[in-house]
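Researcher: Good morning. I'm working through a list of sequences from a screen, and I'd like to move beyond sequence-only analysis. For each chain I'm collecting a predicted structure so we can compare shapes side by side. This is the next one on the list. No need for commentary yet; just the structure.
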Amino acid sequence: MISRDDRCTHPTGPAAKGTRRASDGGYILLEALVALTLLGVISYSIHGTFQQALMTRGQAQDYTRARFLLEKVVADQQLQPLVVERADDGFFDGEGNDRFWWAYKIKKIRLPKPPQPTTPPPPGRSHPTFRYPLDGGFLVHIVATVSWRRGGQEFNESIETLFSPQKLWQSKEEEEENIWGM
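Model: Good morning. Structure tokens for this chain:
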């Protein structure tokens, strides 16, 4: 038989009302708060990871598109029979290209005249005639840049290449002057 003292400490007694033991298999408020906090931190981390992945994917797509657009700018100049020294810029047309703009600069780069041998040739021999492989003593240098905005920040990518001297349009006076006349 259960005595009065036992009833106060027994789980079904009056002292047990409103209290729970951990062995009852239920959760308490503190455990629920810890679980919700942990779930929130993990959800925030996962959201941040996905957001960063989407931003990185967008930047990679922009750099890929910029590379193709750069090649288009240079190819447009390569397809011209002759080019002139100048700088130009503009915006790209077409779907998805409205955030991109281009600029290029074409200029003549003088090449130094190659040095001639300074030591005397051996007796009975002469120095071979040195022929420089390029006519005119210059090359045509083109620098193309594509710029764009993403998230309020400006990005740009550039490419450089050289054309042969025959690609540059010159007046007759310039042509006569350019053969090592500098």
